[in-house]
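Quick note —
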Amino acid sequence: MSPYLRIIAGQYGGRTIAAPDGRKTHPMSERVRNALFNSIGTEIQGATVLDAFAGTGAIGFEALSRGAEHVTFIERDRIAQKVLDENITTLGVHDQSKLIRASVSAWVGTYDGPQFDIIFVDPPYHDVQFSTAILLMGLLKPSALMVLSHPGRSECPTRPGVVVVDNRSYGDATLTLFRREK
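Predicted structure written out below.
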């Protein structure tokens, strides 16, 4: 039986979603997700969201639950993809979500669609892929927000026209929030 995660608040608040067995994914803890969404809550309503390195999809599903219009999930691991599909079905959000089955670095190099209001970047801590995070910053709409989850006090990526607006640590996890300038 797979472990489960709880969606904290909103339309799907209290519902559970599946998580893959094993240690390949590291879902953001409920405590950190709650703090994150409490700090950016007003920006979620009606947003188009990208959940890069989606894993379980917990971040994207929390965004949908709190009023995001659409979430694009990107995940390369086949087991995590299967769990994401299951969670999309469980919550009945096929029309509000899209699952891209690819590595984020391969996808971002070929993507030519619309920009996003919010991008969540939660790469594996053993391979933070800051170069990919920098490319993802280019997919932000003007004034849009990117949230990068990374281990400890590691250096943050930078890109002209994108500034750090907040940086918070929660144990081993650090969340750095970036905003694209107008």
